[in-house]
Amino acid sequence: MDEVFRGIKIRDWVLAGGLTVLGFILMQLNVHTSDAQVDMAIAEGSMAHTMGSHSPWMIPVFFGATIPVLWWRRSVIAVTGIAIGVVALHDVLFGWVIRCGAGLPLAFALAFLGALAYERTRAWIVFGLGALLTVVVLVLDAAAGPGALVLSLPVLLIVFGIGRAAHHRTALTQELRVRDQELRRLRDEGATLKVADDRARLSQQLDGLLQERLDQLTTAAESADGLEPAQAKALLQSIESGSRQTLDDMREIVGLLRGGDTALAPTPTVAHLDALLARHHTAGSRLTVTGNPRSLPATVELSAYRIVEHLVTALAGQAGSPIDVAVRFEDDALEIRVNGPVGKSADVKAAIARAKERAKLLGGSVDVKVVRGQAGAVAQLPVFG
């Protein structure tokens, strides 16, 4: 039993139920209308022909045409074929009775469903079957008569056209949804490629720096032969200082993920965040600094600036939308909070990926949540020494 009713939706029950109720009301009218009433209606012009039967069996027989509508999703063609067969049998068994009040809505509904469900060829097959059903309904209809075909068939065509328009609109919506998903996938891939490109540049910078500084230190060490103790000590101190400078420069480059950052003079720091907000946003934006503000290692300062830069660029909402940046200096960490609206054209995922990569290089983290067009980011950067 479950298999029989599988796939039937509530609106299918409503449609089939409505058509069945119409059929019940109409067949009850056929059963209880007297011949005298029919003669009077013919005289008034409201009926086209005398009724050939008042049998109550016409009620359950007509149900055989409307109840199968429940299964239209499996095959509109089959359901329409069944309706044609049942109504034709109704014609043979009961002759001239009123069928148009329920039969025509049934034909119109099936034509619409066929146009909605099928592609062009099969849809037109359903239209042809719907036209045949319309003929079978009206050929022995006591109320409207065959003359009503002149109006019924154009109406059937109009209903069919509405169904085709709905079909095309549904297909277009599905295609747009697929393309939107494809664009999202391409955008994610683009963000990944940008991060990979930054890493490649970083690797090249590290390699060049190490090669240059090692060559300088090797040359200095080789020049120590034959020097006085005091001169040798001074040279060793110079080598030590150079080694520390090399280590600091390595940390600086590791804190960079975009080519060209090393050329900035001076290197951006937390103190430059006010200027960053003023450059990107309106007066509604604000910077809040709490804790114990102090000078931090250059790598932390630069990374903090770049993280905020990535995030505020992505959180560029409509003109006038404020961006709030809060920086808290803790004893062993720097906490950064950025809140604001997400711009419609902003590449948020790419910005978040860049910010997370920069924080990760220092052993920190970036967490971002987006709710109803508002984003909130929290970055934690460890501070040593």
**N- and C-termini, Cα separation:** 75 Å
The SS-based structural class is alpha+beta
Write down how many β-strands occur, each being a DSSP E stretch of 2 or more residues.
5
How confident is the prediction overall: mean pLDDT? Answer: 82
Given the C-alpha coordinates, what overall shape results? Answer: rod-shaped
Following the backbone from N to C, one meets helices and strands in this order, namely HHHHHHHHHEHEEHEE
Strand order of the largest sheet: 1-2-3-5-4
Structure description:
By secondary structure, the protein is of the alpha+beta class. The chain folds into three domains: 169 residues, no CATH class; 67 residues; 121 residues, Heat Shock Protein 90 (2-Layer Sandwich), CATH 3.30.565. It is built from eleven helices and five strands. A hairpin with a 2-residue loop joins strand 4 and strand 5. Helix 4 packs parallel to helix 6 and helix 9 runs parallel beside helix 10. The protein is rod-shaped, with a radius of gyration of 40 Å. About 2% of the residues have low confidence.
Describe the structure concisely:
This protein is of the alpha+beta class.
